[in-house]
Design brief:
The chain is α+β, with helices and mostly antiparallel strands. The protein contains two helices and three strands, in the order E-H-E-E-H. It is globular and about 40 Å long. The protein starts with 5 loop residues before the first strand and ends in a 14-residue tail after the last helix.
């Protein structure tokens, strides 16, 4: 049986270290994973994870998003000729 994941609401202007701190605190206090989405990253913070581990995952996702090429021509983006 899958464990319930609690969503932690965020907005684009939220300060990443604060969001991470709150999710780590809530996950550890309640024993329930907490998920947040911020500026393209989506991370599930499980009980026992450290803020450093969570930050590394956010940075990994942001780096991966920056390195992905844009959609190839013909896949939703008109070709530039």
């Amino acid at each position: 049986m899958a464990q319930h994941v609690q969503d932690y609401p965020t907005s684009e202007s939220d300060y990443l270290p604060h969001v991470i701190s709150r999710c780590v605190e809530k996950a550890n206090r309640h024993g329930v994973p907490h998920r947040f989405r911020l500026n393209g990253a989506e991370v599930v913070v499980r009980p026992g994870k450290t803020a450093e581990e969570v930050n590394e995952e956010v940075q990994r996702q942001w780096q991966a998003a920056r390195s992905w090429p844009t959609a190839p021509a013909g896949e939703g983006t008109p070709a530039r000729l």
